[in-house]
Each structure stands twice: as structure tokens, then as C-alpha cells.
Amino acid sequence: LVATGVGAKTYRRIRFILIQNRAGKTRLAKWYMQFDDDEKQKLIEEVHAVVTVRDAKHTNFVEFRNFKIIYRRYAGLYFCICVDVTDNNLAYLEGIHNFVEVLNEYFHNVCELDLVFNFYKVYTVVDEMFLAGEIRETSQTKVLKQLLMLQSLE
Amino acid sequence: MPAVSKGDGMRGLAVFISDIRNCKSKEAEIKRINKELANIRSKFKGDKALDGYSKKKYVCKLLFIFLLGHDIDFGHMEAVNLLSSNKYTEKQIGYLFISVLVNSNSELIRLINNAIKNDLSSRNPTFMCLALHCIANVGSREMAEAFAGEIPRILVAGDTMDSVKQSAALCLLRLYKASPDLVLMGEWTSRVVHLLNDQHMGVVTAAISLITCLSSKNPDEFKTCVSLAVSRLSRIVSSASTDLQDYTYYFVPAPWLSCKLLRLLQCYPPPEDGAVKGRLVECLETILNKAQEPPKSKKVQHSNAKNAILFEAISLIIHYDSEPNLLVRACNQLGQFLQHRETNLRYLALESMCTLASSEFSHEAVKTHIETVINALKTERDVSVRQRAADLLYAMCDRSNAKQIVAEMLSYLETADYSIREEMVLKVAILAEKYAVDYSWYVDTILNLIRIAGDYVSEEVWYRVIQIVINRDDVQGYAAKTVFEALQAPACHENMVKVGGYILGEFGNLIAGDPRSSPLVQFNLLHSKFHLCSVPTRALLLSAYIKFINLFPETKATIQEVLRSDSQIRNSDVELQQRAVEYLKLSSIASTDVLATVLEEMPPFPERESSILAKLKKKKGPGAVSVELEDGKERGELNGGGDRGGDAAIAASNASTPSPSADLLGLRSTAPASGATPSAGSLLVDVFSEAGPSATSAGVNDDGFLSSAPPTVASEDPAPPLPESDELLNKFVCKNNGVLFENQLLQIGIKSEYRQNLGRMYLFYGNKTSVQFVSFNTTVSCPGELQSQLNVQTKTVEPLVEGGAQVQQVINIECLTDFIDAPLLNIKFRYGGALQNISLKLPVTINKFFQPTEMAAADFFQRWKQLSQPQQEAQKIFKASHGMDTEVLKAKLLGLGTALLENVDPNPENYVCAGVIQTKAQQVGCLLRLEPNAQAQMYRLTLRSSKDTVSQRVCDLLAEQF
After folding, report:
1. What b/e string do you get for A102-118 counting C-beta neighbours within 10 Å, with b at 16 or more?
2. Is any Cβ of chain A less than 8 angstroms from the Cβ of B137?
3. Min Cα–Cα distance to chain A from B608, Å
4. What is the pLDDT averaged over residues B366-378?
5. Residue B69: left if φ>0, alpha if ψ -120 to 50, beta else—which one?
6. Mean pLDDT along residues B194-205
């Protein structure tokens, strides 16, 4: 019993990653657990509602159902990661920033439109950095090198 | 347009996206999309074979349309075709389409498994990664069956590229989480653990997630990872800020990997090997030291990365809870953060300190920050930060600071956010009782609580103050005086009237000597509130009045007058009318002696042994709060027994509090408190004796829930019903009792009985932890149509469930007409501050309302023929998922609720049954025939009834049972 108890404390992962603009339009939704389409839509709306009312004096963390959302705003875009309540807030907060810096480098000064027109490439970037709800690679150099290699393929 | 200008995309796609963006209205957008869909459809259907590029472009457009929120019902085959392309960009779009659109749709998955297999064996790292990412994203059982054997091989093979190893590790993790029975590490264990030594930090970063997950399930098999993790951590922590090059983030070496290593170590107790432990302690000290060094950069990224490691290190220190020096240092470090200008850090420091408060080594150190925390409660702008401050105050409370903390919490309550008031009220009530040195303080505190936040004072709080006053005679006079004064306020909360009515009815005589509170003044004061109160409060007041007649004969005439008035004796509410009539009669005919006996002062409330036992078992749980520190030392004398703690007392009050309409004064039974318990008690025993054997047998035969459900199921899912709800529902189709749900915190037992169209269900919520659940709340709802089909009524349960305790809830069910869906049960509570939110389907299915009908063969066939219209019949042919044992089959059919008719079917292998479903609206006769084919391991199930929906539903339900 002790083992499983401790297990619950350490057995965790990202539940979803969302990029939304201020109007609530989704620019990326990456799900790491099973939801049906209605649930996904509801989650998207709920996240938008809890995140957009917060200002700079608030923390970058919001309790959300049984989980918490770690988010950071970049210009008009909210980058949100949903994790377990016992997970490491700051590690994911910087995980977001690391991801954004990669996007910025990859798209040369990334803007919202890049994510719209290249949505299929954004998924590739996500999969390089986060997989199965876990952090896969954190080195910007390594990720960008891999992305450039893929870019060169036909 | 960026994509166009880059010239590397698909031009047609970019144009299409631009078109959509330029649409002025939703209608225009839909029109444009329909045009595109028609175009793509004709291209896919056309005679001309499409080249790879066009196929990729169209599939990508379909994907875009899907992401806009439109359904896509074609293109899957084209996407699958793309998988076998030799071009990366085509393959990538194919895989992406499948990962996004396929919700483990098994049909399609079988088709793509072949392509995945080819890519995995292609030795092309790019293709291998694509295939692995697809498996990791879909993670279905079919995929686990196909690839769980292959992926460990790829992961540990010497010639596998680093990037492929990273993907393979996490892919395996996903499969393990989805289908742990299919992923067998066995021979690979040691080589997987040694990935912690891999040269490539990215491989370590990915592999450690897998290792952590596997370790948490099989700690013994993986325990060699501890020393490897410590040495890896040590190398990172002691490296200079530039040593790790690619893995240095804003001058912090490998922050994410450090966090993951520290997290892995939290799966284990402190290392036994002295050298390893020494090295680890050194690491932790270094991390704490670094927090004190001047920052290497002013950027927030630098401090966040550094502090991410620091907080994870502190988690590990708290997890070990064995190094006083480190605990105190951690506390001091957090203390500095409490006043940091970054809100994030203040929040995290409050949160982390809350767990430090529960360690005996750091409790005192935490207490020194009380002023800062109180200040945070008053000044923080973010409500979640204030909430953490309140949690911490509660956690650091002990006898030495209870008065100050309770006073601060009370004053905060005046302005507290609505969302956290109820929890605050409970916390104040618990602290006030726990640390009361004199009862007048306790009474004052609770009455203040009612005054400030009456709406949020739940029943058990005011029941509790009454129980304590009744059990302690030295506080009764004070309580009567205080409550009398509180009632003077022109507008006082109804809960205050309840407490006032009760206490004055019992102990009004103690203050009656003062002419300012003479019996008549007391009565008039109470009665002035009467008309503004709800029925239960009025009922309570009537009981207080009859007690007054006994205490103060001089009030008899006045009170009889009130009872006799039409508004009482002819009240439309039965309860009030009955009380008025009975009390009036009692006061008129009973002699003084009889009256004095009947209306005697309440006996002391009994304590329940079980809750004391629960307290004995109490240990420090994960979210345990510091108030437990004083357990067993010098505490809890409030309620008499010196060794009886507040927790136990509150639990006892929960278990024994009568329902609001029950007679608090005990006119109908001398001890109302015990009235509610015996039946609950015996049911508890019942459910345990029933759940016990069925749970053990469940492990071996068909009832796989208990044995196979992953223990973290509940915490992984948010409010919508758990994915396995339907499965759980199926478990109870043929039985009425058992364990409905269980996770690490909570067990829900169920016991139900049905008669005709009525049912009663007893739910037993057991707190498996040693920590109390607060704000425990359950609701039962009937979604959609069901509302008009079932009538479901419940009583609310007590909002506090002590560690180890169990509470019961009764649900009454009336079936109005036949139905398909099941009612939803939602359970919410806070455990160690975290909100738990679980939804399940209540196993109420239409067959529960079956009445078995015996009939002879001739009757059966005659009726069978009468029900010959096609819609009256439902039939299913299905494969046996369990053994085809005759006795088991019979038991299930009887469990369904029908009569099993012997000697009816000419073939003795077949089973026929008959029953009538009883609903309020109508009775639906139902005939059933089950034909097993042992050779083919198949069944044919046929249902006939007078109502098509019933045939179909019963058929669907039963088909899942074999």
C-alpha cells in the first residue's frame, strides 16, 4: 500500500496543451488523455474562461477541476498546460517558455498567423518537445537541429 | 501570408486557409468549407489516381476543416495510403491526420498497424520516430498488443539513434499506462534503468519518465535506479553553469532533468547505503546553497528554472522527513519567498510550507512566519494565494497560537470570497474545538461564526456546539447568556435562532433569575423570530416552547395560547401541526411529574467507538495538517474524556446527528443521537460482509474491476463520468450489492433493493485515508430525458468525513417509465486542500424493476408468438467473454430479475426467462431466450417485449454479461 501511495504522488503527466488567443480561438490543442469531442470543446471554453480573467498580479497557476493549469501569456496568445495538482509549477512554466522560444526561432519571430498557416508543423514541434504527456527534449539546439533536418526533407 | 512567402508549404492549403479567414460570416465559412469538401470528395472518387502531393494537400485540408470544428467522414483511407509513401512530408501528414482524428477507432488502427510495423523496421530514424509518435499519441490497446514486444528492443538496442530512443521510451510509457498487462519489462529492466547513465541528456530526460512510472508500480524491481539517479543528479548539481552546453537553460544546468531525477527519488525511501545517502544530502545542500547565491541573470527564466529545482528538492526533503537540518533550512528558504515580489513564488512558498508544517522537525520553524502569513491573508490580490495562506494558518495552528489564528480567520471571513467561505468556516470550527482551553471562548467563536457567515455554517457545526454545551455543564450558563444576547440583534441568522432555541429550551433557567432575561422575555425574544424562520427551525422552536412550559410553569398560558392559534394547530405543514397538537395536549393533560420526565434535560451525547478507533489509526497522511501534532499529548478535553480528540468528537457528531426534521429535543426517543446510528451501523456491517467475499472472488473470475482498475483512475479524470462508468454499470446489472468504485482515497460500496417500480439504494462512502475529507458533497442527477423517466431522491450527506470513517447515503428511486441512461453520481470533496471531483453512473438499470413471472411452456410459446412484430424483438449474437458454466449463467439470469423457466425450451442447452418490468406508467412483459453454442463459444440472445425500447435495452444490458 505504501508503494502505491507514493506512486500516486509521482505518477503524473501533462493532460493537455492549449494555445488560445484572447478571443478564445484555439491555435493548438494537444490532448494526452481520452476525451470525446464535446468534452474537449467544454474544456477549451473553461480554460479560456479561467485564464483570461487573470492579470499580471495573479500567479501563473490556476486550479482547474482536479488538475491545475500552468499558463503564460505571450502577446495575444495564452499557452496553457494542464497538469496534476502536485506537479512542479515552475518546471512547466519554463517548459512553456522553452517551447515558445523554439517556435520563435523556427518561425523567425513567430506570430499567431504562423501557427494558423503552419498548424501541421506546430504539431511536429510539440511532438519533438513533449510526448505521451512527458517532457521529451529540452535542448533548444537539439530540437531546432532536428526540425531543420525535417524541413529539408521532401 | 507567412506560409506562402516561405514557399515550402502547400500553396492550395494556404489559399484555402486565407479564404476561410476572409469569410465575413459563419454562413460564408460553412459555404466555403462545403465547396472544398465537395471538391476533395470528387478528387478522391475520381478515376485519375492522385499523386502523393495532392493527396497530402487534400488530407491536410480535411484536417484543417476538422480542427475548425466540423465533422469529417471521409479521407481516412487516403490518410492511411499516405503512410506508405516514401516521402517524409506525405508520411507526416498521414500520421498527423490519424493521430488527431482517430480516437482509438479500432477499425482504422488495424489498417495502420501494418504501415507502422514497416516504419519501425525501416531503420530510417525519421520514419521510426513518426511511427513511434503515432503510437504514443493514439496509445490504443490494439497498438499495445502489436508493438509492446518490439519497442523495448528498439529502446535498448545498441545501434538505435538517440532521438529514436527518446521516442521509444515515452512511447512505451504511454502503452504501459494504457495497457500495463501487455508491457512486460522483465529481461529489459536492468538495461532500461541503465539509460540513466546514457551520454545523451535527452535520452535520460525521456527515459527517466518511463523509469519513474515503472518504479512507482514496481519499486523493488527498479530500486537500482536510486543510486544511478543520485550520481547523475550529483554530476548535474555540481557542474558549472556552462558545462552542460545544450542543456543549460538561462545559466541553470539541466533544470528539467534535475526535477525529474528528484521526482524519481520520491518513489523511494531515503537510500540505505550510507555513501549514496551522503552524496544525496550533499546534492540537496548544494541546491539550498545555490538559492542563496546572487543570481547569474536578472531574467525571470533564470530564477524560475533555479527555483523549480529548489521546490522539487524541498518536496524530496519533506518526503524523507528525516533530516531536521534540511527541513529547517527549507523552511527558512521558503520564509524568504513569502515576501518575494513575484506572486508565483509567494504562492508556491505558502503551498510548500503547508506540508512542512506537518513535520515535527519543521513545525516550529513554520510557526515563526505567522505574521507574514496573516498579512498575506489580508493583502494578497489573488484569491488562490489567500486560500493558500488560510491553508497554511490552519496547518500551523496549535495550542500556542490558536486564539490568534482563529481570530484572524474570523475577521477574514467577513470579507472572504464566497468560494472559500464554507471551507474557512469548517476550519475555524475545527480549530476552535481542538484548541479550546476554556469553553466560553469556544462558544463565542462558534456564535461569531454563525453571526459572520451563518449561511456557510453547515449543520454539523451548530449540532456540535449544542452537543458540547450539553456535555459540559460548566459552560451552559455562559452559553445561555451569550446566545440570549446574540438573539437581541434585530436581524440574526436562522442558524443562530436554532442554537438559541435549543440552548434556551435546555438551559434558559440558568439565566432566568435576571429580570432582563426572565422566562417571558426569553420566550418573547424567541417567538419574535418565529415567523421569519423555515419549517425545520419552527419545529425546533415549538419543541423549545414545550420545554419552556416544563422549565417555567408561569409561561404555560402564553405558550398554550400560541400553540392553540390557527397558524400552529391548523398549519398546512404536517410536522408543525402535529407538534402543535401534541404539545398542546401534553401540556394540558400530563401531570407535572410526567411532564418533567418527558421533557427532562438532554442526556450527554454518546461518542462512537469506531471514530476513536479511526483516530488511533491516524498517521500523518500526505496532506495531513499540523493540528495532528498535538494528538495524544494534552488536548481535546472539551468533551469530557481527556484522550478523546476533537476529530473523533466531530466524527461522532457526524455519525449521530439527526436529520433536520428529526426531533432534536428527543421527545419521541430519549436519545435522538443514537436513533440514527443503529440501522446505519448494521448496514455498515452488512455491506462489509457482502463486499468482502465478492471482492475477493472478483479478483479471480469475471469481475475485473477491483483487480484491474489502475489505482489512480479517479484523479486522472475530471468531472465528466469516468470512462469506465459504463463498465461499472455493467457489473451491477445482475447484482445489487458490492463495491461500486474504489481509488486510493475513497471506496464506494453499494447495497440496493427493489420492489415493483420502487428502489432504495444505500451508498457507503469510505474514507480510506487517515486524513479527513472536507466539503464532502454528493449529488445525484438525471441527465436529459431521464429526468422524466426516473424520480430520484437523496438526502445530503455530512460534509466532513473523518479519516477511516464511512458515511451512508440513501437514495430513493421511482421508475416512472422505461429508460436507458443511468443517473449520474457526482462526488466532490477536498482532500488535503485538493478538490476531488468524481462522477460515476449509478447502477440503476431497467431490469432492476423486473418482477419474475413463472409460466408453463405452452403459455410461454403463445406469448412469444404474440410478440412477433419485428420491432418487439431485439437480438444479439456475440462471443462469450467468460466461461460458459451453466451455474454461472443461471445465477446471472436470476440476478437479472426474471424467472428462469425450466423445461420450456425443447433444447435443454437453452435458457428461457420471463418477467414483467414495473414502471409507474405501465407494465412491460418481457420474454428472453439465450442460446449458448459451446463449440463456437458464442451466444444468441433474443428478447421480446411489448415495448421496442425495453427489448433493445434489456438485450444490450444482458449481452455484456456473458
Report:
1. bbebbbeebeeebbbbb
2. yes
3. 27
4. 95
5. left
6. 96
Task: Kindly state the average pLDDT of the residues B630-651.
Answer: 34
Q: Coil, helix or strand for B796?
A: coil
What confidence tens digit (pLDDT) does each residue in B517-540 have?
999 999 999 999 999 999 999 999
- The three-class DSSP label of residue B582 is helix
pLDDT tens digits, B851-877: 888 888 888 888 888 888 888 888 888
The Cα A111–Cα A102 span in angstroms is 13
Place of cell 424567541: B526
Residue B69 annotated as lining a ligand binding site: no
* Amino acid at residue number B538: R
Q: Residue B85 and residue B87: Cα distance in Å, rounded?
A: 5
- Give me the mean pLDDT over the A76-98 stretch: 96
pTM: 0.68
Q: Give me the percent of chain B exceeding a pLDDT of 70.
A: 87
CB contact under 8 A, B837 and A66: yes
- Whether the CB-CB separation of B765 and B776 falls below 8 Å is answered with yes
- The neighbour count for residue B34, using CB atoms within 10 Å, is 12
Q: B260 with B209: CB under 8 angstroms?
A: yes
Interface of B with A in 612-651 (CB under 8 A): 622
C-alpha cell belonging to residue B201: 541528456
According to the annotation, is B412 in a ligand binding site?
A: no
Read off the pLDDT of residues B697-736 as tens digits, 9 standing for 90 and up. 333 333 323 333 333 333 434 467 777 777 777 888 888 8
pLDDT at residue number B103: 66
pLDDT per residue as tens digits for the range B431-460? 888 888 888 999 999 999 999 988 888 887
Residues on chain B touching A10 (C-beta within 8 angstroms): 212, 215-216, 263-264, 266-267
Residues 717 to 756 of B: which have CB under 8 A from any A CB?
A: 717-720, 723, 744
B924 is an annotated ligand-binding site residue: no
| Alpha-carbon gap, residue A80 to B677, rounded angstroms | 49
> Does the pLDDT of residue B920 top 50, yes or no?
yes
Best mutation target, B717, B743, B775, B828, to test chain A (most A CBs within 10 A)? B717
* B59 annotated ligand-binding residue: yes
Measured distance CA(B950)–CA(B846) in Å, rounded: 8
Size of the A and B interface in Cβ pairs below 8 Å:
220
Please give the pLDDT value at position B419: 79
How many helices (H) and strands (E) chain B has is answered by 44, 16
First to last CA, chain B: 59
Q: Give the mean model confidence (pLDDT) for residues B303-315.
A: 97
Tell me which amino acid residue B579 is.
R
CA dihedral B474, B477, B479, B482 (to 10 degrees): -140
Place of cell 449463467: B889
User: Which grid coordinates belong to B561?
Assistant: 395560547
In the block, residue with C-alpha cell 492550395: B12
C-alpha cell at B150: 518490439
Note the pLDDT of residue B53: 93
C-alpha cell read off for A93: 512554466
φ and ψ at B327, to 5 degrees?
-60, -45
Q: Does B205 contact A137 at a Cβ distance shorter than 8 Å?
A: yes
Task: Find the residue in A nearest to B173 (Cα).
Answer: A132
List pLDDT tens digits, range B547-579: 999 999 999 999 999 999 988 888 889 999 999
Q: What are phi and psi of B844, to 5 degrees?
A: -105, 110
pLDDT tens column, B214-263:
999 899 999 999 999 999 999 999 988 777 889 999 999 999 999 999 99
Buried b (16+ CB within 10 A) or exposed e, B700-720: eeebebbeebbbbbbbbbbeb
Closest-CA distance, A151 to chain B, in angstroms, reads 8
Nearest to A120 among B93, B254, B259 (CB): B93
